[in-house]
Known about the structure:
Layout: H1 25-35, H2 42-45, H3 65-75, H4 79-83, H5 118-123, H6 204-207
Amino acid sequence: MSIVPDLVHVFPLPLRVVPEPLEDLASLLSRTAVQMEYKQVNWLLRPEDGAYSRLDPAVCFLLEDAAYHYLGHLLQLNEETLYKLTFHRFLMQMHAPDEVQPSPSGYLQRPLFFPNGHATHALFLPKSASRVCPRCLAEEPVCSVLYWNIRPVVACLKHRIFLVDSCLHCQGKIPLLRSAITHCPHCSHTVAAEITASHPPSNSLRTRCFCRARP
């Protein structure tokens, strides 16, 4: 559950970034933190006076209506744009009708993946985990992509290489929400273009396309 402040006491960030196509919300927050010259991405969500609790690290499963209003105000983005930065945007494409249900009071009134839903566990990595394409992270614009964290998708659709979920330098798992998109938060070693990953079988990119994923 996310606890957000009264918007009366929050001002929009003076430096912001524009979302890239299919970018995830965690990536946008990380890039915004860099733009603001913050050393920690959590500084965006928890002001220095410590008065506010930070949002759930699993920001790509953002549920609460108040959290959308808070981030929308902070980043000056509308609800539709924020929604498309979350995994919820895929719900109607993933053929998961059992997941479509009325949103409880206090939640965003749109199709949502709920934490304990079967499709959530079957289709996505654990909430705070992530995978990356090292080659994508070495290119401009630098951002993470939503579909990298869909469980059946094992390869980058652009570079046709396997995605990685841990740092090859320290073997630490790469978290979804991290302060520097291109570096391991555990050892600060780069994860961008660090490896020459093997090419997956050509048909894996066709059969595992994210918009056709099933539990």
